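From the pipeline queue, job 12 of 40. The input is one protein chain; the requested action is below.

Action: predict structure.
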Amino acid sequence: MRDMDHTSSAFTAELDNLDAQLSDLGGLAARQLKSAVKALFDFQLEKVDKLIKRDEKLDYLEIDIAEKSVEILALRAPQADDLRHVLAAQKAASIYERMGDYARNTANRAKAIVASDTGDLPLERLVALGTIVAGMAADVVKVYEDADVKMAMKIRDSDVKVDELHTEIHRELVAHLQDHPEDAVATTHLLFIAKNFERVGDYVTGIAELVYFRANADLPNPFREKADQTSWMTDDD
């Protein structure tokens, strides 16, 4: 009986450690996104370079979580709730790392915009979109930690507002490009940044769905209202 208790205690500690690392990764991804949004209106290149460099930490954290997840699956052979716990953490880590990639890409594009020496650009609503998405990312980290299914579904459903705003921004940027062809380089970067933010919104819903999966052993209704009308655009890395 003591050996069984010891094993259970050790397994619980492993799961707790996995969760702690996942929270660190998610929190860093959310902060990276917030910093990337800030780079769009202050263009402080020194801070942008630090943001880009920090992306390596997300990569290492994601790899560590993936390796520990595999180790737990191999050595503990978890079942039911514990199995979903590990599988969800492994998937969530991959999603958070991907969010960080979009933050890094946004920072790189902010640097390119500065280098293009362009004049006034329609940044206000793009910054608003990024702020919304960065907030959603921070919220979903907490929701995942708390296993709050109700709030997770609210976040999932709120992504339709991100889609709607992204479509409006896309149209605004295309109109700006037509009226100001001299801003072609910078405006193209902004179009990709807007798509980055829209994709992060999708990734946030992925985390929210994992919260549901852990609680219900199933995914929520696959139908989710979408309002993005620019799906022809290629995803960016």
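Job complete. The chain has six helices and no strands.
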